[in-house]
């Protein structure tokens, strides 16, 4: 099994099916049609060579392999979501970085006095 064969969106659908146990409900929550979710499940089944979910009177029941994958997939998706939505913010007053400014002689004469004054007031 090559990871390049797995589309991240297929794992998102897999996760939603684990939660909802319904193709239609998973589609509604993901903003997809029922056929789109079914197609995603078909692609994931082919890539992983397992049924993953079986249709029963209780809804879509995960296979043992799907249950085996559940925790690592949920962990991976949550980790990605956190990484993509969290950004380090820059606080200039707390920064210990060193900045180097490069400019021409005229730039130095024009920009340095007001810059140094502003830095002296804030530092």
Automatic annotation (TrEMBL):
Classification via InterPro entries: LysR-type_TF, LysR_HTH_N, WH-like_DNA-bd_sf, WH_DNA-bd_sf
Domain spans labelled HTH lysR-type: 6-63
Pfam family, one: HTH_1
Classification via SUPFAM superfamilies: Winged helix' DNA-binding domain
GO MF term list: DNA binding; DNA-binding transcription factor activity
Key words of the record: DNA-binding, Transcription, Transcription regulation
Family stated for the protein in its record: Belongs to the LysR transcriptional regulatory family.
Protein name as annotated: LysR-type regulatory protein
Organism: Comamonas sp. JS765
Gene from which this protein is expressed: nbzR
């Amino acid at each position: 099994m090559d990871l390049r064969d797995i589309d991240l969106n297929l794992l998102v659908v897999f996760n939603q099916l684990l939660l909802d146990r319904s193709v239609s409900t998973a589609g509604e929550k993901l903003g997809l049609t029922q056929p789109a979710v079914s197609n995603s499940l078909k692609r994931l089944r082919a890539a992983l060579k397992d049924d993953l979910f079986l249709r029963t009177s209780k809804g879509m029941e995960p296979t043992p392999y799907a249950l085996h994958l559940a925790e690592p997939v949920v962990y991976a998706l949550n980790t990605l979501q956190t990484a993509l939505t969290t950004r380090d913010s820059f606080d200039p007053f707390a920064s210990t970085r060193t900045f180097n400014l490069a400019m021409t002689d005229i730039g130095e004469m024009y920009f340095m006095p007001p810059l140094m004054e502003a830095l002296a007031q804030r530092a």
